[in-house]
Design a protein that fits this description.
Blueprint: H1 6-54, E1 73-78, H2 87-91, E2 95-104, E3 108-109, H3 113-122, E4 126-132, H4 139-149, E5 160-162, H5 171-189, E6 194-198, H6 199-206, E7 215-218, E8 234-241, E9 250-255, H7 259-264
């Protein structure tokens, strides 16, 4: 009996697997395309951030992101992550305000706060300070850390509470801690604090609970915030901008009003109380 060569038999036996493999590759390609089309802005964002991380060593600190059209008052927020900042150069590029990280949780003080705080004002930039809220720690203790770190005075922008940490035990407990921080800090400085959060976190956990406080909203990869304009005063539209004077990326913000409105937001001459007001 004549039999086909063994190689031909193997070829026929393998052909169904090749078809399955080809179909799997096709399905994977279609699924990948659908996911990309739906989340392309997010994909592009992570690609840009990865590229920025790899090219950090070649940056000069002179790179510049264009200012956002439609707004006249632009600002940044910084922490020790930005390293040494040339505030004079920053001020030369239409940055009118800056919020500087002062503290986090119950013990952490930003190591570059004092230097940034002093040099921002010397450069003519209107400054403010923020505290990164850790929801599983006592709000009163966090407020005490902030006021012992930040010497706000007349002419400074209001204090800011940054609420976005996703790890917490109980949302009601978190809201009580936020309320305590806001109340104590307002009593201490005599001015209403600003609440900062990103769009997703705000909508899920904070909306409707702190409407009496000005909102600084982080919302990226959109042409404008989804929230109505009467709900926020500052929009953080990017966390991957370049501003001359800073080597690497920095958060970029716009103030909704004009420059006179920003000045009106500052702490007045009689706005600061003594530290004993927390007791």
């Amino acid at each position: 009996m004549n039999r086909p060569p063994r190689t031909a038999s193997r070829r026929r036996a393998a052909s169904p697997w090749r078809r399955y493999l080809g179909l799997s590759v096709l399905v994977l390609g279609v699924v990948s395309l659908v996911v990309y089309l739906r989340y392309q802005r997010l994909v592009h964002r992570y690609v840009r951030r990865t590229y920025a991380s790899f090219t950090l060593g070649s940056l000069t600190g002179r790179e510049k992101t264009p200012l956002l059209d439609g707004y006249t008052v632009h600002g940044i927020d910084v922490s020790s992550y930005q390293g040494t900042i040339n505030w004079k150069t920053v001020a030369e590029h239409r940055v009118r305000f800056a919020f500087i990280k002062a503290s986090e949780g119950i013990t952490l003080r930003d190591q570059r706060f004092r230097r940034n705080w002093k040099e921002a004002r010397a450069a003519g930039i209107y400054r403010g300070a923020y505290h990164y809220f850790q929801p599983n720690y006592d709000g009163a203790v966090q407020a005490t850390l902030f006021v012992r770190t930040v010497p706000l005075s007349s002419g400074d922008l209001p204090p800011v509470l940054d609420v976005e940490a996703p790890e917490f035990h109980d949302v009601a407990q978190m809201r009580r801690g936020i309320t305590t921080w806001l109340r104590l800090v307002e009593r201490h400085y005599g001015v209403r604090p600003i609440l900062y959060s990103n769009y997703g976190f705000y909508k899920r956990y904070l909306a409707g609970h702190f409407d009496d406080y000005p909102l600084w909203l982080a919302h990226y990869e959109v042409d404008s915030p989804v929230l109505p304009r009467d709900k926020w005063i500052i929009w953080q539209h990017s966390d991957e901008a370049y501003v001359p004077g800073i080597r690497g990326t920095v958060d970029f913000n716009v103030f909704q009003g004009n420059f006179e409105s920003l000045l009106a937001l500052r702490i007045p001459e009689t706005g600061k109380n003594s530290p004993s007001s927390l007791n």
